[in-house]
Structures are given as structure tokens and as C-alpha cells.
């Protein structure tokens, strides 16, 4: 098809580059960064002689699927929103007025329409729509003898006397048309693999575009001249994509941001809670443990989170875990920190401070040390704490007997005495324990909550909180 004026493929939804969207209350980037699509700042010759006259824009395509009615096409595409109209019968397929017959997924379409950056594919189900409007049909009165003869065409005599309601959207996805956009997304995926992990994302994105929700700030960096590794043309296509998603989803994204900033999450926005590279926390009976997310996959009911945390057996190493967190089905909204796993950045109860103080203590004892508990002259000023299930931290030093117990913290000696207890792991970070200062955040937050020590009073190796409250003997 041609991109000339008069094409039936008009974009019916904002933002069109000919009619830019109204400014939103909250922008994700500076106004100076904006492309004014009506009056582009960049002259065409800067973009190359072969750049299409029209600037990149999305094309909304409505797809009707029918697997229920044998006389209907299984799939059809329209440029306008489909529905049933006045005079349509129960035998009529859900349809629009402007059917698209071109192969919109083919290379020829991309070549002929280089200003079209991507398709927004909105899908509807014909059977679901007929169920929705089934009570709106009126039966055309016909003589009984004719009705009997035409009984197998009965559905043709139930017609609408006015246009039916708009259909409910079954699904939505964005399909990249422009090769410039495809190439740009491949580059972005290669530079930000945690945010764009799937191979399929080179060609499409599924609503509600969770990866864009989490990558919004990163993607705005792409438009800063000194930071971008995209060409100007590629930037325009990517910008078109981000603008479209942020424009059509900004109410939803803002609502989620507001909830999370207040430390709560609703079921509607649960799928947005875990993002790539987030630090997440799991509460345990021995205190909170922090992990870095490698991958968080939402399957409709919950997240499967692959993550890692620091462990230590004389050298520091990364320990990987797979954790599951599901929505508590009986609630509409919960505190983020009440979930089995939650992003540390949304906690309001001070868990980060707990983790940091504990990490500082753990770092002090990465080398062999002899410590004495409950001594006025202790060089380490140890404070025993316990964690209750509500995560309140209760100093209990005063509750403990005023005896002086000595412990030896020496993981290397323990490893030499108990070689079978040492699990195989990477030695990539060997030597870190010899550094004078710990690495930057979030390192200290992610150190273990317990450390093994030898108690001279009971002559046993035991696990202790990093702050040296005896836990359990082995
Ligand atoms: Zn149908």
C-alpha cells in the first residue's frame, strides 16, 4: 500500500505526529528534550536524504478473531474500531468499516510506509462481542410458513436497530514495522539485557508494556546526545514508541508509581512491582535477607524471581536463589512489605538501615577475630538483637545473663576443620575480603544475616547473628 494522502490507514488514536498529544501533568524528561512532531527541530538533511518525509508514527490496527462462527473469517484487520452496526444481524461477524487487506506484517508494507514506526495491534473476540450485545437484537417479523422454510437462516432475522456498543479489548501488542526501530531495539536490548531479556522483544512488545514501565528512565537517557548510541533516525522511532506508550498508559503508570511511593500495592499493579536490578527483601525468622533480581517473570498469579545474595565462607561469593511471591488473593491492596518478597526501595519501616548496620558488622568480622560478648570494654560494642515477625527490632542485651562469653570468628579455620561443609562456588570475588573498605551499595545491604563462630564457653561451632546472638547449635 502507498503512504499517500487518502489512505484508509489513518491513525485514529493519539499521539499522532501531525496532532501531538496534550502535555501531561508529569513529564518523564525535560521539555527541552521533547520532539515537537508538528515542527521538528531537526532539519531533514540531518537525517539523511533517504529519510521519509513524514516523521515516525504509530498505526493502530484492530484485529477481529473468530473461532466460534464457521461462516466468519478466523481473522480480519480494520483501521477503525469494530462493532456491529445498525442493520447487522446475529449472523454478521464483528467488523469495522475500513478493512485492511494489505499484508501489514510484510516487508513490502514496511518499505512503502517508512513513516510507520510500529503497529498497535488491538485484538477482539467476535463470539465475546456477540455475547455482549445478544439482548440488543430485534427479530424481524416474517410469516410463519416462510420462517419455517428459512429456519436455518434464523440468525439473519435478528438485527440491531442501532449501532452496538464498543467491543471489549481482548489483548494489545505493539509490533515493530520500521527496520530502524527494529535495529534500535536490538541495540537497546544488547545494552540493557536485564530490562529487555526476551528475543521476541526485538519485534514486538505486549501490553501493558511492563518492560517500558521499568525502563522509562533508562530510555530517556537514550535521547541525551552524549549518552546515546542510536542514530538520530533511530532515536526518533524509539521516541515515538516511548511517547505512545507513556501517553496511552500514563494514568496507569502514574497510579502504580503513587501506590508504590506510599508503600502499598493493589492487585491491579502487582505485575509492575518487581523490576530488573531491583534489590528485594525476604523476611525470615532470623531477620531480613536482601537479594538482587536477575529475572522476575509474572505469570498472571505471581512472580518467579531469580535472584542472588552475597554469601561468605572465608571468601565472598554470590549465592543464587529462585523465589516465588504470589498475590494474597483475599485482599485488594496490601502493604508492600507484607508480601513474602518486596522491593527494598518501597519499604517504609527502616529495613535498609537494619541491613546496612548488620552488613557493617559482618564486614568487620570477615577476618578472623576473637570477640567477647557483654563486656563493658568490648572493642566491638556488640548489641544482641532479635527479630520478631513484624520486623520490629528489639534490643535484648539487658535480658541476657551478665556472663562474659568469648567467641572465635574464623571461617577459614572452620573450613579447614570441616572441608565437607564447604560448598563449591565461584572464586570470582576472591580477595574482596582483603580490601580495607567494602564495595559501594548495595553490597553491605546484601551480606548474610548470620556468621559461624566458635564458642569457648560451650566448645562448639554455631551460627550467630552477625551481631552475635547465639541461634542454634549443630
Ligand atoms: Zn464470529
Description:
The chain has 474 residues and is an alpha+beta fold. The chain has three domains: 226 residues, no CATH class; 79 residues, no CATH class; 119 residues, no CATH class. It is built from nine helices and 21 strands. It has a five-stranded mixed β-sheet with strand order 2-1-3-6-7. The longest helix has 30 residues. The radius of gyration is 31 Å and the shape is elongated. The N terminus and C terminus are likely disordered. The protein binds zinc ion. Zinc ion binds next to helix 3.
Condensed summary:
With 474 residues, this protein is of the alpha+beta class. It has helices at 44-47, 107-112, 126-133, 144-149, 179-191, 210-221, 232-261, 351-364, 411-417; strands spanning 57-65, 75-78, 116-125, 137-139, 158-160, 171-176, 204-206, 264-266, 279-284, 287-298, 302-312, 316-326, 333-335, 342-343, 369-373, 385-387, 393-395, 405-409, 450-455, 460-465, 470-473. A hairpin with a 3-residue loop joins β11 (302-312) and β12.
Amino acid at each position: 500500500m502507498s503512504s499517500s494522502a487518502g489512505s484508509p490507514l489513518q491513525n485514529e488514536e493519539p499521539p499522532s505526529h501531525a496532532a501531538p498529544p496534550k502535555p501531561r501533568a508529569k513529564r518523564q524528561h525535560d521539555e527541552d528534550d521533547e520532539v515537537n512532531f508538528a515542527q521538528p527541530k531537526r532539519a531533514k538533511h540531518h537525517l539523511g536524504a533517504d529519510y521519509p518525509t513524514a516523521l515516525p508514527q504509530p498505526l493502530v490496527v484492530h484485529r477481529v478473531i473468530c473461532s466460534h462462527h464457521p461462516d466468519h473469517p478466523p481473522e480480519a484487520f480494520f483501521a477503525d474500531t469494530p462493532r456491529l452496526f445498525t442493520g447487522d444481524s446475529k449472523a454478521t461477524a464483528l467488523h469495522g468499516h475500513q478493512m485492511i487487506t494489505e499484508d501489514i506484517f510484510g516487508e513490502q508494507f514496511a518499505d512503502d510506509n517508512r513513516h510507520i514506526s510500529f503497529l498497535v495491534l488491538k485484538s477482539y473476540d467476535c463470539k465475546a462481542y456477540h455475547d455482549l450485545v445478544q439482548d440488543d437484537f430485534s427479530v424481524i417479523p416474517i410469516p410463519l410458513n416462510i420462517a419455517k422454510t428459512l429456519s436455518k437462516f434464523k440468525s439473519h432475522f435478528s438485527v440491531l436497530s442501532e449501532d452496538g456498543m464498543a467491543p471489549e479489548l481482548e489483548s494489545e501488542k505493539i509490533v515493530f514495522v520500521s527496520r530502524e526501530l527494529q535495529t534500535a531495539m536490538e541495540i537497546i536490548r544488547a545494552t540493557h539485557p536485564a530490562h529487555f531479556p526476551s528475543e521476541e522483544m526485538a519485534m514486538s512488545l505486549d501490553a501493558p508494556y511492563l518492560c517500558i514501565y521499568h525502563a522509562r528512565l533508562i530510555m530517556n537517557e537514550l535521547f541525551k546526545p552524549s549518552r546515546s548510541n542510536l542514530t538520530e533516525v533511530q532515536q526518533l522511532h524509539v521516541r515515538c514508541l516511548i511517547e505512545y506508550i507513556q501517553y496511552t498508559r500514563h494514568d496507569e503508570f502514574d497510579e502504580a508509581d503513587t501506590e508504590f511511593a506510599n508503600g502499598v500495592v493493589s492487585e491491579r499493579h502487582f505485575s509492575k512491582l518487581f523490576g530488573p536490578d531491583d534489590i528485594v527483601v525476604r523476611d525470615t525468622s532470623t531477620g531480613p535477607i536482601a537479594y538482587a533480581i536477575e529475572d522476575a517473570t509474572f505469570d498472571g498469579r505471581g512472580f518467579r524471581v531469580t535472584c542472588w545474595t552475597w554469601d561468605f565462607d572465608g571468601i565472598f561469593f554470590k549465592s543464587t536463589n529462585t523465589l516465588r511471591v504470589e498475590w494474597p488473593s483475599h485482599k485488594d491492596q496490601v502493604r508492600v512489605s507484607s508480601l513474602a518478597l518486596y522491593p527494598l526501595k518501597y519499604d517504609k519501616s527502616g529495613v535498609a538501615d537494619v541491613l546496612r548496620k548488620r552488613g557493617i558488622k559482618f564486614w568487620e568480622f570477615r577476618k578472623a577475630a576473637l570477640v567477647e560478648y557483654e563486656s563493658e570494654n568490648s572493642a566491638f560494642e556488640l548489641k544482641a538483637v532479635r527479630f520478631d515477625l513484624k520486623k520490629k527490632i528489639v534490643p535484648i542485651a539487658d535480658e541476657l545473663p551478665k556472663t562474659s562469653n568469648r567467641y572465635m570468628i574464623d571461617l577459614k579455620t572452620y573450613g579447614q576443620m570441616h572441608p565437607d561443609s564447604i560448598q563449591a562456588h565461584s572464586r570470582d570475588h576472591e580477595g574482596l575480603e582483603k580490601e580495607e573498605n567494602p564495595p559501594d551499595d548495595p553490597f553491605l545491604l546484601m551480606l548474610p544475616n548470620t556468621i559461624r563462630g566458635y564458642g569457648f564457653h560451650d566448645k562448639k561451632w554455631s551460627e550467630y547473628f552477625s551481631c552475635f546472638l547465639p541461634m542454634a547449635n549443630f
